[in-house]
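MODEL INPUT / OUTPUT PAIR
PAIR INDEX: 1
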Amino acid sequence: MGLLWFSPPVYVKANRPGIRHGVSHVEEAAEELMAWDTKGPRWTKAVQSCVDAFEGRASPQEVREALRRRPRRRAYISRLSRRYHGNPLVRPSGVRED
């Protein structure tokens, strides 16, 4: 079996700070995933997509999509708004102080 290529490459953080590595095939994606420190739900989904691609149940493009998914911004904004809710130093926009 040859390499399972996808295009364009996905750039992921490397082990060295500030360095990003271009991943362009499933085997390389699997190697990079094994080096990740954070192994949460996103990692699990990406690893499963690699396994599925190796077994012919997923395309290389599906692996690419799993690698490039980011945590949802809405959840991040929701956490921020809960953190600052009720803080007198943070006012909603458009509210004037008299």
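PAIR INDEX: 2
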Amino acid sequence: MDTRPGDDLDAAAALAEPTRRRLYDFVARSERPVGRDEAASALDLPRQTAAFHLDRLADEGLLDVRFERRTGRVGPGAGRPAKLYVRSAREVCVQLPERRYDLAGLLLAGAMEEAQASQEPPRLVLERRSRAMGAGVGAREASGSVTQALEGLGFEPAAEGEGLVLRNCPFHELAHEHTALVCGMNLHLVEGLLDGLGDTAMVARLAPQPGRCCVRLEPASREP
């Protein structure tokens, strides 16, 4: 699965423009695909204005575009298909600092299902699945650096001495309420990330500090 949040800030910013937001709401509430003329007429907008904003929403992934002939005619003389818009399946969530409760939910739900089927301890299953997810992310980011991969997951890595501290926990509220469980999940997620990247120079260790993620990356040559 894709663990990147995407450009949600850009998508949210696109909806901050009042006309664009009205068009998005109109399309989202429609029971069928909406054409430019229909949207312009419904919102009393010039067609060119409606077309511009609808295309901007499509560019941001908030609307999907379809081409259909609404006359029912086919073949020569049937005319060009109309450009129509429908709400996309994309979900936009903006949280600052970045949180990734979607990932935590996937990991925890998957671990519970697997543990129930296998009769393994749920925490062991969660740790294994966390490491596997991290390895998958690392493999996809293999051409980049560990810093870039950590940023993609919302950890906000920063150099400190010879290692890296993670200034943000993407699962902050969960970690506050269920510290041992979520910190273990974090640790195995980052360990898997290093595995996927093929990075043997760094190791992940638990090093809790106030205001930071519980995981720290240090040179592998350093003694625990």
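PAIR 2 NOTE: The longest helix spans residues 122-140.
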